Amino acid sequence: LCAALLVAGCATTPPVQPPPSTVPSPLASQTESTTAPPAPASTATPTPVKAGSAARRMLIELTVTSRPKPVSEYPRREFGSSWRDTDGNGCDQRDDVLLRDAVRGSTTVQQQGACDHDVLAGTWIDPYNGQTLTFDDLKNLSQAQGIQIDHIVPLAEAWSSGAAAWPRERRIQFANNLSALRATGGRTNASKGASDPAAWRPKKAYQCRYAKDWIAIKHRWELTVDRSEVAALESMLDTCIAKAP
Predict the structure, then answer these.
(1) DSSP characters for the chain?
(2) CA dist 17 to 14, 20, 21, 25, 132, Å?
(3) 86: pLDDT confidence band, cut at 50, 70 and 90?
(4) What is residue 38's predicted lDDT score, i.e. its pLDDT?
(5) Strand 115-125 vs strand 108-112: parallel, antiparallel, or unpaired?
(6) pLDDT, tens digit, for every residue of 164-201?
(7) Of the candidates 158, 181, 179, 182, which has an alpha carbon nearest to the alpha carbon of residue 170?
(8) Who has the most CB within 10 Å: 7, 142, 143, 165?
(9) Is the pTM value of this prediction over 0.85?
(10) Directed axis angle between helix 204-221 and helix 227-237, to 10°?
């Protein structure tokens, strides 16, 4: 028998292994049944931010009236006869605005009475047309007339849109409110005059800011607007660049 096995090669057959079980373990079954499928990616489009949204909301809240008749003359004295020191820093609002709006580092000032920044010279950029204005002696009347303080909402326009009914002290506060004043060139101020946005606009690059300022002033002081004024303001707000949400 052994000899026969040697002739056959004495090979041995390995035992057959049973196939692996296909029944999942209790733990695997539990994991599969409790795992939530991945959430689908959101396809919602974010709502774009409309340029000048805050100003548009304030504009909607203003009282719209019929267009007032042009005011050729109004009682300027009812807004005060001269610039006031309404913030109590010793300087009147003209010097405060000149210092605030000048090109940084360009002004020459002196002490005059209680005011420590009586502005004598400096350089300004007219916000309405971008022109550079430089003056070396603002005690010279001709130079002083070249740089003026503009009421963004002109006093005559304010008078016809509600200020006529105010107490005189409120009108004086309006006329000297720093946030409603800008240093501009004399020629620009003269061309703007008592016009509202329906009749006069600054350069296009400044129209967004101008419209926002105008609306904010009228909203704060509860002044009225007319329909042509509203249309012009909406048009200028369209020049604003929307910020990303």
Answers:
(1) -HHHHHHHT---PPPPPPPPP-SPPHHHHHHHHHPPPPPPPP-PPPPPPPTTHHHHHHHHHSPEEPPPPP-S---GGGG-SS---TTSSSS-HHHHHHHHHBPTT--EEEEETTEEEEEEEEEEE-TTT--EEEES-TTSHHHHTTEEEEESS-HHHHHHTTGGGS-HHHHHHHHT-GGGEEEEEHHHHHHHTT--TTT----HHHHHHHHHHHHHHHHHHT--EEHHHHHHHHHHHTTSPPPP-
(2) 9, 9, 12, 20, 96
(3) confident
(4) 54
(5) antiparallel
(6) 999 999 999 999 999 999 999 999 999 999 999 999 99
(7) 158
(8) 143
(9) no
(10) 130
DSSP β-bridge partners for residue 109? 119
- Residue of 213, 220, 222 lying closest to 233 (CA atoms): 213
Q: What is the pLDDT of residue 244?
A: 41
Q: What rounded mean pLDDT belongs to the chain? A: 83
